Amino acid sequence: MVAPTPYIGLSDSHKSTMIAQTLGGNVLAKLPVVRKLGALRRSLARYRNRRETIALVPTMGALHAGHLALVRLAKRRAKRVVVSIFVNPAQFAPHEDFSTYPRTFAADLAALTALKVDLVWVPSAAEMYPEGFATKVIAGGPASTGLEDAFRPHFFGGVATVVAKLFSQVAPDIAIFGQKDYQQLKVITAMARDLDMPVKVIGAPTMREKDGLAMSSRNAYLSAAERAAAPTLHRILKESAAQIKAGKPIAATLTASRAAIERAGFEIDYLEARHAETLALVASVKDGPLRLLVAAKIGKTRLIDNIAV
Fold first, then answer.
1. Do residue 145 and residue 230 come from a single domain?
2. 272: β partners
3. Is 234 a catalytic residue?
4. Which residue, 37, 38, 86, 202, shows the most beta carbons closer than 10 Å to its own?
5. pTM for this entry
6. Host domain of residue 155
């Protein structure tokens, strides 16, 4: 297993490392970066001794404006903000992009320094999954609805396990996740509820480029032609939602929309209308609040998106 790319100057000691992050030669501030669990707990104890609320923003790094919007929301909701950066090997299948997943650690620290984050938790894979690690969280409910789980059966077990560990390590009052990974948000919300975890999970709206493309670290993989075609997903989601609201049958709408996505050059995994809370199958708008969810590949890049109906 491979940890995120290290930043020159980071210490592997049990103490927090104070990073003087430089951007263009200008020192922004000192940012506490912690890589060992003991140091993390000592740092967080100081906040709790002062009865300060803590928000956690879990990330895999390669931060973009969507991630930074989560951090800003966290700063509005809590006194202290902890951002974790960990490329979680447990949620990648052998054929997926773990080894090539974008890693931009120095730039990430610069962005978090500018936002005055209180602490960055950067564990290694060995710290998260030490020798002999043998416990996993098995997610059900929204993790077993035939969406991402049908195409990435390993995924939610890896996500639930690492997020459960992060909740245990940081013990945040709130945790912020983006709605772009909508099924993931519902899985984590259900896990925290079912396991009586004392954390409030908050979903933040999807941040988009000007042309509607949902912001994602994997957008960096897109060629110029693929990037030009990528906003088709959001456009068709909006058109589909409008048609369903207007009374057009869901099944017919989705059939036509799938065909339109494929004509745009995508290989579609799914385009589905589901109950917005349970992700259960629906037949009409009478079945409850609806969410449209899509996953499709263009070139070698798999994109996901969703929208409320």
1. no
2. 293
3. no
4. 86
5. 0.89
6. 17-204
